[in-house]
Hints:
Blueprint (H helix, E strand, L loop, with lengths): L3 H14 L2 H45 L11 H5 L5 H36 L6 H39 L8 H23 L2 H10 L1 H28 L1 H32 L7
Helix pairs in contact: 1-9, 2-4, 2-5, 2-9, 4-5, 4-9, 5-6, 6-7, 8-9
Amino acid sequence: MNKLWLDEAVETLKSCWHNPLKIVGCIALDLFFFFAYGWLSMPVFDKLTEYIIVISALVSDSLKGSGRLYVSNKSLVDILFAPPLGGFVVKFFLLLLLLGFAVYFLFCVFQGMVWKMSSEIAGYALSLRDYLRSFFVTNVVWFALFVVYYFGDLLLKIRTTILAKINPAYVQGDLWSMAAIVLSLVVVYFMILSYVAGSIRMGFKAGWRGWRDFAPPILLILAVFLVIDILMIQAGMWRIEAAYVLGLILFLPALTVTKVYIWRVARALSENGVLPQY
């Protein structure tokens, strides 16, 4: 068991080597998803940025006279949804929800196909129709959590911007940022296992029971992406085009290889009785 992470890493590389067309297919789907996401989100994010600037300016003006976060015993949320801010805030959140639904659909279609194809490289024989259906259902919960987190983070950013305008000496603490990073890593851990298990319930069960056995593979994955990140940063300091080339050569293939590795590790742990049978 102690060498499982290493043995499966070697077998993963062998599986990928013998399935070049599927690897290229996964990379192409990942690349298309990133391009589609960027093309779709760019104008929306530009509009969202305009709304944030307008909302922050209006809220700041309304609070400058009081010099505090509450006006007439109203919280920031009350102020945001009251005239004259209410119209801007509603449009802001509707636009954000529209973007969220579009990203959800794109993610489920393209990433669902990538996860399915990577499972084939790992030796699974899953039905594409059944897997995509479970992928769509599973991601309903994860995207709902993401929307809640994103809305909360935006409110905190608006609050920080306003407080900084009222009190230039204000500095936000690092506690929320650190907590958000830790929470994000935990959520991603269970989210990925739910993709392999086919349901959130099974993903949580596998993640809870097998966290000690998943720790070495996770550390290996983090180390690989850390090295790639350092190389891309160094290349970007030389020429930004070099960073893009390295991303295409290293980052995108690493995403696919990582998925295959996760599939293989999960199956090995299931066969050893550490995890429930999928």
